[in-house]
Amino acid sequence: MSFSLQGKVAIVTGGGRGIGKEISRRFVEAGAKVVIASRKMENLERTAAEFAGLPGEVLPFRCHVGKKEQIEATVAAAEERFGTVDIMVNNGATNLEQGPALDVTDEAVMKMVEINVLSSVRFLRLVVPKMIEKGGGSIINIASIAGLRPQLEGLLYSLTKSGLIMMTRSWAYEWGKHNVRVNAICPGLVRTDFSSFFWKSGEGGERIPPNQPIRRLGETRDIGGIALYLASDESTWVSGQTWVIDGGATAR
To answer: What is the CATH number of the domain that holds 57?
Structure first.
């Protein structure tokens, strides 16, 4: 198998740390030109410096995915520096108001939808027409197993991630005739700062879901390899799928 991304241009949101950083690393190692985008420029610059010796190229670009004008600026910067976007990874997300469903506020609903759902719509509205003109592309949406089954006291996160999964299928159905492939990855509990609320115990140890057969936390590398496959030409007949990477947690 060849997972070369030589000559490909990618945007990865949330690319400065965690799962987004690992996906970006895999892409740059495979020769891609990658725009890593997130709110904190210091994380992006540190990541870009770490990737400096790899075969591809990296452009760190500050982008709050909840801001339409910043999304537009990110796509414009990618096209100006590298050319038409071939691979779009919608990874940037937030998780607000973990708690009882009746405590959810209107403001939290609107913010979660804007960041976790609308941001993907806004990015794809900009990049997909040019993918179609070019003859195809790959879109990878980072969802969650919380979008497949309810997360206790995590209504909004489950809501937005399930929405992203359904959008993945709808987009794949509509754009497949143009060779634009759309897939979702649903990680289980992965050891990142973003998910630390769920896996860090009060004693400084780790909490592993009791129903998970593989008795370890997921690592970002467990997600990066699937993303590389979906971005590469090895997966040109793969679209509309939900890839569950969770240590077997949803097997039961």
So the answer is: 3.40.50.720
For the cut 80, the answer to whether the pLDDT of residue 200 exceeds it is: no
pLDDT band with cut points at 50, 70 and 90 for residue 97: confident
Q: Is 157 assigned a catalytic role?
A: yes
Distance CA 170, CA 61 (A): 29
**Residue 19 belongs to some domain of the structure:** yes
**Residue at token pair 């496959």:** 229
List, for residues 16-27, the tens digit of each pLDDT value.
Answer: 999 999 999 999
Task: Give yes or no for a contact between 213 and 14, defined as CB atoms under 8 angstroms apart.
Answer: no
The domain tally of the chain equals: 1
d(CA 22, CA 174): 29
pTM of structure = 0.95
Domain extent for 160: 9-245
Q: Is residue 120 situated within a structural domain?
A: yes
Q: Which of 157, 188, 212, 217 is labelled catalytic?
A: 157
Residue 88: inside a domain: yes
Q: Which residues contact 136 (CB under 8 A, 6 or more apart)?
A: 178, 179, 180, 181, 236
**pLDDT above 90 covers what percent of the chain?**
87
